[in-house]
């Protein structure tokens, strides 16, 4: 047998003849992109006994463990320890703090990312029975995915979990400069003396506070008239006040016009002739999916949008699902995980129906497991009826910006609720006026803001800012998710003296 591929050279390009066409390998499911969402879907379907090919061009696990949630929260933990030590002054005597970034950089390398090596994550997937392929893949017609020369034909579905990349604004000169994205900021071993942060959203604020607490002179430049503009105005004020207290300069309403880079560092000019200079520039102005690379046209799906539109079972089209950031339903790890659970249930349900209830793998125990996963998910689905696949419901979508104070939020903001014509009531209280806030006696700020639907008598949104704002949020998420009647919330017992007891105070202040 010849080892040479069959074909010929035409016009300088190798062309395979018909007999040499790469034969697609038939598998059950192909998952393209093994970030948080893709890895979860691929692993669980493999555990259920399906033949699953997982394709990843970079690191298995995606942005969250290597350049996102985990290392950034490790940085925040370190920065908060510094801030807490500095608070000893007014509370417990004296403490001297000598911040040292080397400790953080080492922890990120050794404990969080294994030096940006994903061998453990790959094994986590293959140990579940999945087959791992390293490379950039794309759709290649209905049911087909190509990775270089390899082609896979998926019998039961394709899942797209290709995530997002930083969205870099078209500011004159910017593209030619060595600006940082979140990746360089997370990987940094030696801190710069000064840092310009373009974008006052979640990433910008979290990292700005971290670097400021380690002694970097930080300026945040935001185009809108407030930072953290997707949340309540009170949340923006609290975050801005906290960052300013850490020495961060915050400039809002600045439209970046031009960026230059020279031996002295970066100069950013605004359209109103504002000028900002710093050694480094971090661009964190949002994220975008790169749909044009996925071969969507080969399955008749429009690749022109910002995200991949999906239905409430995360289906893009027949036999194709999408999970995580690429769906545009909220760029959070918990959304990717939530969606992954729905997809697993739907793929298994789909497969069971396609095969008329027959055993998909020929192993009764595996089918039992698969059906078990599907039905237990159905049982936990808030809006799915018993026995059906749960449907995605983002009403009670929680988010936490891990600044200090943490800004936790769930559901609608007051403005969003009013725009929807809801008969809105709002209740607000400052944490400082609560017993626990007073005892805490620090420079931290915090509050609880509740947004209620007066006609339905339930909470539809809430913000919890404070030292444990993200944890206090959990009670409010349950209230919004389960539509707990306000009368019941008012007659609950709130432990004394906790931060969450301020929820009871805010409930008492609900007014139209
Ligand atoms: C600095 C930062 C901090 C964050 N902090 C938090 C936080 O505290 N809490 C939170 O909930 N969320 C946080 N996030 C968001 C979180 O990281 C994302 O929501 C999450 O990673 C989304 O997972 P995903 O699977 O959708 O996509 P990703 O994690 O982006 O993974 C997609 C994967 O697909 C791969 N891929 C893309 N195209 C192809 C292709 N053609 N072929 C093969 N592979 C491909 C990519 O290489 C990547 O590994 C943070 C993000 C950042 C940047
Ligand atoms: N704690 C968390 O859960 C967490 C932390 C970090 C990131 N994330 C996720 O990652 C996503 C991306 O984060 P992000 O901070 O990049 O995006 P973002 O959308 O949260 O914020 C981007 C900010 O940049 C501003 N901006 C856009 N163009 C600009 C320009 N030309 N000049 C100045 N400002 C400009 C926007 O107005 C916005 O305030 C978030 O939406 C969030 O879902 C989550």
UniProtKB/TrEMBL annotation:
S-S bonds: 64-69
Keywords from the UniProt entry: FAD, Flavoprotein, NAD, Nucleotide-binding, Oxidoreductase, Pyruvate
Gene3D superfamilies xref list: 3.30.390.30, FAD/NAD(P)-binding domain
GO molecular function: flavin adenine dinucleotide binding; NAD(P)H dehydrogenase (quinone) activity
Domain Pyridine nucleotide-disulphide oxidoreductase dimerisation, chain residue ranges per copy: 398-506
UniProt binding sites for FAD: 73, 137, 325
Pfam families (alphabetical): Pyr_redox_2, Pyr_redox_dim
FAD/NAD(P)-binding domain span: 28-340
Record's protein name: Pyruvate/2-oxoglutarate dehydrogenase complex, dihydrolipoamide dehydrogenase (E3) component
Native species: Micromonospora phaseoli
